[in-house]
Each structure stands twice: as C-alpha cells, then as structure tokens.
Amino acid sequence: MTVSHMNLDEYSKEIDLTARLSSEIDAFWQEGAFSSFNGIDQIRINYATFIHDDVQESIVLVTGRTESYVKYQELAFDLYHQGYNVFIIDHRGQGLSQRLLKDKQKGYVTNFDDYAHDLKQFIDEVVVSNSTDIPSPKPHLLAHSMGGAIAVRMMQLYPTLVKSAVLTSPMIAVNNGNIPNWLGKAIIHMGDKLNAWFSNEANYFMGQTGFKHVTFADNELCQSEVRYKIFVDIYNNNEEIQLGGVTTHWLKEAISANNNIFKNLDKLIVPILVMQSGSDTIVSNEAQNEFCQQLHKKNSASCPEDKPFTINNALHELMFEKDQYRSPAIKKALDWFSTYSA
After folding, report:
1. How many CB atoms lie within 10 A of CB 327?
2. pLDDT tens per residue across all 342 residues of the chain
3. Count of alpha carbons within 13 Å of 172, Cβ hemisphere only?
4. Are strands 85-89 and 44-50 parallel, antiparallel or unpaired?
5. CB pairs under 8 A, 24+ apart, for 240-243?
6. For residues 164 and 340, is the Cβ–Cβ distance under 8 A?
7. How far, in Å, CA of 274 to CA of 168, rounded?
8. Among 70, 72, 34, which residue's Cα sits nearest to residue 51?
9. Cα-Cα-Cα-Cα dihedral of 295, 300, 306, 307, to 10°?
10. Where are the alpha helices (DSSP H) in the chain?
11. Which pTM was predicted?
12. Which of 19, 106, 170, 326 is the most exposed place for a label (fewest CB within 10 A)?
C-alpha cells in the first residue's frame, strides 16, 4: 500500500475526526490485512497489519486490557502516514482473539507471560517475516497500559527482539486506590485459592461485572468527547469485541507480572521511554516512577532523567485524549523511535 506521508507533527484532529473516519481513515483501514496465528496452547490470536511498499521502520502497537485493534484506526492512520509500517495484536482472551473461558465477558489469562510469548511469536512470524528485505527488521514497540506490562515482560524474556519501546500509561502496577498493597495482595491471593477450590471457572473479582456502557461524564479514560464517543460506539456496535471486568485470577497474574518486572530490570537492554498521564486513576503512577528510577540506574538510555515523561492533566488513554495532550505524546514517541531507527 502506498500513501503520501503527512507533514511532520501533523496528526488527525478532533474538529474533523468524525468526517475523516468515514472517508480517509476508513479507506485506509480497508487496505489493511487482517489475519491470525495460533499462540501459546494453540489459542487463536488475531492481528492487523498496514505495510508500505517502500518503508523500512515498523511499529508494533501493544494494546491495553479490553482493547481490540479495531479501536486503533485513527492512531494506525497517523503512524502510517508518519512513515511507519503498523502492526497491531489482539491479546488472547479479548478483542477478536479467542476467549479463554465459557463466559467470554470475563477478563482472564492463565499465565500473564502467555501474553508476552504471543507477542514474541507475532514479531517473529508476522512483523519480521514481512520485513525480509529490510536491513534491520526489528520493530519499535508502542505499548499502552496492560500492553506496557506485556511489552516489558516480553523484552525481559526476549531482550534483543526490538529496537526501542515507548510505554504509554503502562500498567507497571494496578491502582489499588486506598487499599494498602499488602492487604490488596492478600485478598486477591486468598480469593483466587477459594475460587479454585469451589468453582470450575474463574470468577469476577469483587465489584467486577460484564461489559457495560459508561457515559462520557463518568469515564476516567479520556477528556476528548469525540474520541470517547467513537470508540464507545465501536464497542456498542460489535458484541464480539466486548469484554467485562477482571477475574480474581487475572489480578493475581497482574501482581505476579509486577513482581517479575522489578526482579528482572537488568534484562531490559533496549531504550525504553515511559510516558505518564498526569491525572491517571487507572494504573499506579507511583509504580511507574519507581520503575523509571530503578531502570535508569541499570540502563541510562532508558527513562531520561530517571523519571517518566509526564503529560500533565491527561487521563489514562493518551492516544485517545484531547489534541492538546495527544499530539505532544505522539510527537514524543515518534522522536524516540527516530532516535533509535536504523
């Protein structure tokens, strides 16, 4: 596919986004390739690819919990027109990929590192195999929220697979609110044990339910009403990608991933930029700060000034935020990728 590039720093804007989605962005999306492979335990993993005829740099989008690649049409369009091949994976148990439980609404994974092994296989079998004529076929990672934790674990398990990574609002740790960490972990581990004893299938954690609509006024994800409406409509109109809350077992696995991330910081040898949403309530910004402080000591190229790059006042979904937050975040990510491109 060949499309002329946008000017640098020119990204889609809220004011004309709805119109462009039904014209330019939709036409771009229809030119993509959509397929699947079998990941760990032969689970079907779906993905999307948007490949230039003459481009040598690639970005893999590693999405967050509940997300599907169909949510990322605007961002894929922007990145592609900035001169990158774009690859997007739907994680096991969500999006268009195969669900893992009878109740397909439950957020579940058997082992958190299964996500990382799937991502490695995706890079090997799809990304690199579509880059055989490129001198340096390793991609960059742009990973969001849970995808940030997945990307970190993948880079720890397979340290030389990518050129660089940008983590936006990464789920280094979930936000426990006012509950002390030790108490939260105890509740989750005991709940998972009781679940295993008394139920044949993982149960929702306390207060978690199936998919439900959240109004813009009540949402904690972004402050762009137009972008929020667009992706909510996508979910409301496509039952196949809907996902509810997390199971207790998923939370136990998220805690395990958090522990493994900090235990294996010395394995992170590629340059990593952490991009923090200043007003995030979904994940722990304190955990991101600690991650950067410790990582920078081991790899000075990562987390410049030993802290995240913070977008003040932004909410969790940086790539779906108002233009005033989203555009600087995209520019920072692209500058990072350019620094570490061939």
Report:
1. 17
2. 544 444 555 799 999 999 999 999 999 999 999 999 999 999 999 999 999 988 789 999 999 999 999 999 999 999 999 999 999 999 999 999 999 999 999 999 999 999 999 999 999 999 998 876 666 789 999 999 999 999 999 999 999 999 999 999 999 987 665 555 655 566 676 666 667 666 778 888 888 899 998 999 999 999 999 999 999 999 999 999 999 999 999 999 999 999 999 999 999 999 999 999 999 999 999 999 999 999 999 999 999 999 999 999 999 999 999 999 999 999 999 999 999 997
3. 25
4. antiparallel
5. 240/96, 241/68, 241/70, 241/94, 241/95, 241/96, 242/105, 242/211, 243/65, 243/66, 243/93, 243/94, 243/95, 243/104, 243/105, 243/107, 243/211
6. yes
7. 6
8. 34
9. -80
10. 14-20, 26-30, 73-81, 113-122, 146-157, 181-198, 225-236, 248-263, 285-298, 323-339
11. 0.94
12. 19
What does each C-alpha distance from 238 to 70, 75, 95, 232, 328 come to in angstroms? 10, 20, 10, 10, 31
Token digits of residue 220? 């904690």
**Secondary structure of 26-57 in the HEC alphabet?**
HHHHHCCEEEEEECHHHCEEEEEEECCCCCCC
At which residue do the structure tokens 């233009």 appear? 323
- Least Cα distance to 46 among 112, 95, 105 occurs for 95
**How many C-beta atoms lie closer than 10 Å to residue 155's C-beta?**
24
Separation of alpha carbons 145 and 254, rounded Å: 12
255: Cβ contacts below 8 Å, ≥ 6 apart: 185, 188, 189
CA distance 65 to 136: 30
